[in-house]
Predict the structure.
Amino acid sequence: MADIPELPAPHRALALQPLLHDVVICVAAPAFTASGRDGQLRGARADGFYDHDRRLLHTLVLLIDGREPDPVGVQPLGPDRVRFTAVHRYPGDGTDDPTLIVERVRTAGEGETVLLRNVGTVARQVRVELAAATDLADIADVKHGLTGPAVPPSAARTGAAELSWCSATGRAGILATGCPERPRTSAGPAGGTFTWSRVDLPPAGSWLIRLTVTGRAVPAPPGHPVAASPHVPWSEPVVQGDRRLVALVRQGLADLRALRLADGTERRAASHDDQFIAAGCPWYLTLFGRDSIWSARMLLPLGTELARGTLRTLARRQGTVHDEFREEAPGRILHELRPAQSQHGHGLLLPSHYYGSVDATPLFVSLLVDAWRWGLPAADVDDLLPYAERAMDWIIAVCGKDKDGLLRYYPRPGGLLHQSWKDSADAVRDAAGRRIEPPLALCEVQGYAYEAATGLAALLESRGAAGRARDLRGWAAALRDRFADAFWITGEDGPAPRYAAIAVGRDLDPVTGPASNMGQLLATGILDAEGCADVAAWLASPELNSGWGLRSRSAAVPGFNPMSYHGGSVWTHDTAIAVQGLCATGRQAEAAALTDGLLDAAVHFSYRMPELYGGDARTETSPAPLAYPAACRPQGWSAASGVAVLTALLGLRPDAARQRLALRPLHPAPLGPLTASGLRLAGADLSVRVGRDGRTAVAGLPGGWRVDTGAEGGAGAGSDTGAGAGPGTAR
């Protein structure tokens, strides 16, 4: 039997989160695989085949004649498949050229094939062994560096090419098929081995085996997300223009197809399941409120079906009672869904259904409003509207807890300390580098709440609820005034006289130190024109713009760390949201600078954008962005960011209630001419072209719709008039 690699014993005090920057990941949600670049699974780090947050195998080591093949290449074949190529060499050959090629093609959710090819002129006879083992670990334990103990496999049946494992929490199996020779199967306390003692390979001959990996959690979590149907709930656009943006959109959509999940509580017809985007692989391959909402918002130009599935999935789990451990409250939107309660390290104990986020609830409302504007069918809007109203009630109730009326979070002991997208324990620091603890009112969360209230008011008004709409607008206006009074800080030697504080405390003490959070305010409407200009200046400054994207924290303040999760790194989605806001407010130079840096970073990551990456400055001696070693990749809102940037550059702002498509591209176009066809608006196929000079052409408008280029005035560049291919041309 081949040696099973010795596994480290579980030890929480010494365990560290596995690094991912050099890990090859294939994903077909809810399944994925992870390994080193040689393709071997060695029972360490994040190595393994996974399904539903359970590691099915952590060891799968291939030996030929008792030796590991020499790896020579990795070729992605799609988000869910990869080919590992290696060679097996013979010292006595008299040539340095390899003559035996080993190819492993691994597919998430299925298994892999192993192909041996003799490309030499001499017949070969080899011994092939495959050692397999597992710990059936939960993903939360893997994330914190815990491996083992190994689960002993069941006794191998005589003549059976199969191994199986079973524990109180999961079961797994591996089946070898495809070649006429049945392997010898052996099992021991640490794992099992398939052995083919004599594989004959004549010149130009080959040998193939198929390995099928199966398994699941025990018991299967009821109502947990399941694999989505083959139907993809968005259109496939054709983009022409800057090659970096074209490639980013293409790769992002491929990754998003692999990250799709469906609601397990209610399966409809196979082509109409309620789909959503999982947050990211490997650590967050499940439903996350804010992440799934942002992914759906960014993809609205490709249709409203994904938004509908996301909203319906979250609506079914909207809070109905007060539960301190789950941090559930009536109207509150779910933060995170897991198969079971789990320890997440550093004293963090989370239930399977966890509501500890302050931003998912207003973002839920805005997703429904945005989907309505993009043409979500009226019946779907009406079905979801009561859930949005209950969500808004929760927002208003939380704002009423303190006399200043801001939207704060009040975490329970043992739950997440910070409850917006920057949720690490040290996410909020002041200009002196000191950690600031809750209760806190974050700046972008006030923007989300304002946007949710004003958007919901417009939606309710379209449904005849003028009184409720008027009340919401009044509430939003008061929040806007409170924000203006509380959040602005005078900058010292900065690019603008003031910046928006990342947060204010209970006594309205602002947290000093510029951070990227203020970039997410631009598109919410909570800022006036002067505020937008000040924020834009800070976003473009070297303190926040690394040259590869937007730093999460200013590089000019103590505590800045370019490799900190939220204290100086660059987040893909954060940069894309800032670009959206800069384009929406007509900030040409700032939008162009951030966009160009983000797209250049995408080149270095082969257009599969990670969750985050290093925030070091772009210089002549730093010619590439540095990977953040534990970042998810692929990651939902990072993959969707290409479509978000595309939409921003096209300047698309639909309004289904008025049947108007506003076009506000920047002038001149930052990336040159840009065309996108295969977009979706109110169920119709739409094509939009923006010329270098900002002139636009639109084809495929739904019946009754018209184009508004802002000729009467407004932000953006498409405000000139003309015929032919000029602004507002529709056909």
In short: The CA atoms of residues 536 and 590 lie 6 Å apart. Confidence is low (pLDDT under 50) at residues 4-13, 712-731. The longest strand covers residues 206-217. The first helix runs from residue 139 to 143.
